[in-house]
Amino acid sequence: GLAGLTAALTLLDRGARVVVIEKEPFLGGNSAYASSGINGVDGSNPADSVELYIQDIKKAAQGLAGAELVDEMGRSSGDAVNWVRSRLQVGFEKLGQLGGHSTARTHRPSNGLAGSELISALQKQLKKFEGTTLTILKSTEAQTILLDEKGSVRGLQVVSTKTNTTRDILSPHLIVATGGFAADVKRNGMMEKFRPDLVGLATTNGPWANGAGHKLVMDAGGAVIGMEDVQVHPTGFVDPNNRYSRTKVLCAEILRGVGGLLLDMNGRRFCDELSTRDYVTKRIFEVSQSAPQGPVIDDLQIIQPEVFILVNSRMAREAEKHVTMYHKKGLLTQVNTVTELANWMNVSEDVLLEELRKYDETAAKATDEFGKKFFKNLPWLNSEPFYVGKVTPVLHYSMGGVVIDRTGKVLDASGKPIQGLFAAGEITGGIHGKNRLGGNALTECVVFGRSIGQHIELGGNTPVITDDNPKPKPENTLRAISMDELQQHKSKDSAWLALYGKVYDFTNFLDEHPAGAEAILDIAGTDGTAVFHNVHTQSMLEEFVPIGELSSS
What we know:
The protein is α+β, with helices and mostly antiparallel strands. Helices cover 28% and strands 20% of the residues. The chain contains 16 helices and 25 strands. The strands form 8 sheets. Strands 11, 12, 15, 16 and 17 form a 5-stranded antiparallel beta sheet that branches. Strand 6 (140-147) and strand 7 (153-160) form a beta hairpin. Helix 2 crosses helix 3 and helix 3 (67-86) packs across helix 13 (440-455). It starts with a helix and ends with a strand.
């Protein structure tokens, strides 16, 4: 994910030799799905300051955040955002405010979603080092951290998940950036071990977030902290076609950041939508009148209280990428009048009108009965069309994890560093305490990934690689491919897709696609430009070579 790849690129820029080990067939992890943005005090908001940012983090953490780590993240956040813009060439032009923040400090790109843009940009930069100072081993799982007789790192034992062959990779430095454990919701899994009360909730995490890295580090003597501190995000989409799916699409906080409302099953508001995630989650459980318990699946009692999320046309324009994507997935429904909205929600139209009028009126006073202070994209009335969906609290993030210092060194139970062992990203603990602020996951990854990359001592005088020489573009000799021919390639054995006038063969990429093969197969054999553009930017295609041009005939 973002933390590991950031550390790798920082080291490569310093002239190091790096081996990246990824157990999945693709890079990115959960970072590729993060969409609300990255926090940073970079001077773009005069009302913000490092001190205010640190204050917000500590308040959300409820006194359990490590002062040294919070200080490092807060003071390095501006440099992290600027590095993303300068080194990765990702714009992040938009600025928004998420729940629990005193002011706007969450940066996101105008095109594409934050996480996928960052991972795509990192892969593009890393590719320049492959074959020289960088080796990437995908579908390769770490088994054991190798230590010498003094307890210092000497390497890692790995196994190929394709060939089942085992080998040792020897190195005096090892960075573990394997993410959290909020997807380990099976019986006797890590969620049941540390938070059995939450194991019935669905998760937003990919199956790789199973705590395997935690176990590796603990076996090597690394200490952990706050493992019971697991964040429940208040809004994961309830898919009408698969209501009780154990993995849900995150309803990004940016929808509430642009002014979206949460309504109970009677059509009434019940909270400050921009308060902290733990507060909003608590209120959803308190007001939910839908049965919080669902069916029993895999011997687990499903817990799923449901409420509505609602945005108007102004909000939809500001969060266009998100709303369009959710609408196409069938998670948000467009309705054109308050009457249609009330019918869709199965609530009283009079109650709904009263609630929206009341919100418009109280917004003028800059506060409401729930203490909300920030109101955007008003009025609600006469702002059709609306977009509405159902959401439920979901397992989202592991705040607890491996104990590190501000340079990412892993500490043992006595507080001493384990020589050569580092960790960054969600695997670590002590930064967020009881509750993580939205946008801080990406900030943490970049800040501590860069810190590790900058502080690891490299032996000898090695050159700093800044860029490679531009390669000449091949002559355009693409053949014309008709729509009839394109439509014949829509299976897992041959998956072609037309994008921006070019045709690509994604057959060998199906198993590597972070969103799964079905996301490609659903539109294979067609012109998928519109669907692709709703989620990605055209620059992501630079890693792929087209096989032809879509014929206009």
